[in-house]
Amino acid sequence: MILRKVVATASLLLGCSLTHAASQVFFDDFNSYIPDQFNWSPAASSGWTVSDGTVDLNGAGGNYDFLPGNGSYVDLDGSSFVSGVFSNHVNLIEGTTYLLSFDLAGSHRGTHADTVHVTFGSATASYMLGSEDAFSTYALSFTPGSSGTYSFSYLDVSGDNRGLFLDNVSVSAIPEPMTSSMLIGGLGLLGFLANRRELRAHLISRFRS
Ligand SMILES: [Ca+2]
Ligand SMILES: [Ca+2]
Q1: What is 24-174's CATH number, 2.60.120.200, 2.50.20.10, 3.60.9.10, 3.40.50.300?
Q2: Are 55 and 75 contacting, i.e. CB atoms less than 8 angstroms apart?
Q3: 67-101: per-residue pLDDT in tens?
Q4: Which ligand is the nearest neighbour of the Cα of 79?
Q5: Which ligand is nearest to the CA of 35?
Q6: 145 CB-near residues (< 8 Å, 6+ apart)
Q7: How many Å lie between the centroid of ligand 2 and the Cα of residue 87?
Q8: pTM, whole model, 2 decimals?
Q9: What are the boundaries of each domain within the chain?
Q10: Residue 63 has pLDDT above 90, yes or no
Q11: What is the pLDDT of residue 98?
Q12: Distance, CA 179 to ligand 1 centroid (Å)?
């Protein structure tokens, strides 16, 4: 009886902790923006900024839906022959590992490959895709040393107005293996203690009867 109650409580705590750890802190699929916005100036409320060049907003309903079925998405090389730094920001908690996840696809114009430099806090990575590559999901992780606001950004290194396409950008806290294993260990200990308590109660009742 006691054992069942303790295990149920511990399971609940474990479930809550994992749910909390996997929480998403940012997501944008760009579908709320109207396509055919060349040299796009995102609304301040979106958090997105474009600096040192331009990006375009393409997609469903527009005249240049290169990848149908994905709503709107960003062409990381705008229409000014200078690709811009496309960035946003999130508030992160010290010591938690976060995953920046996003979809990239080839430019679908011309035959050459394109490279995009991605940053997330102090983490950086580059991705090269062929012109005809379909959307695939990529991810970059970062663990901040102190709580605060951190940016993530995308820069297409070409400048021919035909950049890689970006869609479905998200930032999520990922479960910490240490925490999970500690909780599972704690669950086992609680079970062990409850077992001992039940055994003791059983022996006392036998002794008294
Ligand atoms: Ca989209
Ligand atoms: Ca463009």
Answers
A1: 2.60.120.200
A2: yes
A3: 999 999 999 999 999 999 999 999 999 999 999 99
A4: 2
A5: 1
A6: 94, 95
A7: 17
A8: 0.77
A9: 1-22+176-209, 24-174
A10: yes
A11: 98
A12: 34
Q: How far is CA 110 from CA 85, 130, 132, in A?
A: 22, 10, 9
109-118 exposure pattern, b = at least 16 Cβ within 10 A, e = fewer: beeeebebeb
Residue 209 alpha carbon to ligand 2 centre in Å: 86
| C-alpha–C-alpha distance, residues 106 and 53, integer Å | 20
> How does residue 175 score in pLDDT terms, banded at 50, 70 and 90?
confident
Rounded distance from Cα 144 to ligand 1 centre (Å): 28
The number of residues making up the chain comes to 209
d(CA 145, CA 3): 40
CA 28 to ligand 1 centroid distance, Å: 8
Type of residue at 22? A
The two structure tokens encoding residue 13: 């705590």
Distance 115 CA to ligand 2 centre (A): 14
User: Could you say which ligand is closest to the alpha carbon of residue 67?
Assistant: 1
Nearest in space to 105 (alpha carbons), one of 33, 63, 36, 167: 167
What spacing in Å lies between the alpha carbon of 103 and ligand 1's midpoint? 9
Q: For residue 73, give the ligand nearest its CA.
A: 1
Compute, in angstroms, the gap from residue 14 CA to the centroid of ligand 2.
Answer: 47
